[in-house]
Amino acid sequence: MGRLITALLLSVSVAAATPSLAQNDATEDRYVSIKRPNLVVPDLDAALEFYVGHLGFEFAYAEDSAVNPESNFAYGVFNFDPAKAIRQATLNTSTEERGFALTEVVGLEAEISRTPSLSTLVVQTKRFMDLREDLIADGYTVTDFNDTSKKNPNGMGILEMGVLDPAGHLIVVFQYVGLPG
Question: What is the domain class of 6-177 according to CATH?
């Protein structure tokens, strides 16, 4: 059985490339941005159904890679077996083109385990209740993390749920609700 692998690729950029941050001298020297979290999945098609079909990410593009570790950075980043082919898909978020990626190692068997969750992807939605109903109707187990007294720093209420994607990655979905106060 293979290990469940999750990676987050960080991209550190020069603040001057981002005008809104460059205008703020206090953050210019400390600019850091998370770019394109990449989850390793055992079945890219099932993952795309979940992330595009349920969560609402937009499909950007996909590519299959022949077995060629020199041609694709993912082999080194994830320490993939160089004898295995990979398939990758990149998805758009509502705020960023190519903001999320999925990588399948053909033939990788992932051990799906709920305990412990070593990482999570947090996704904001504007259709929390409908999404929750859709996930349950399609057989996903949803864990509600709702606490009506919980507020964000601006005083907004938060609805939260956890769901395992088809590869066993914990996905926390939330929506801000109510008025501040």
Answer: alpha beta
How far is 21 from 28, CA to CA, in rounded Å? 6
Supply the pLDDT for residue 114.
58
Quote the Cα angle for 5-100-174, to 5°: 90
Give the distance, in angstroms, between the CA of residue 145 and the centroid of all CA atoms in the same chain: 19
Strand partners, 64: 87
- Of 41, 37, 85, 34, give the one whose Cα is nearest residue 64: 85
Structural tokens at position 53: 């079909």
Tens-digit pLDDT profile for residues 29-63: 777 777 889 999 989 999 999 999 999 999 999 98
**Pairing status of strand 100-105 against strand 86-92:** antiparallel
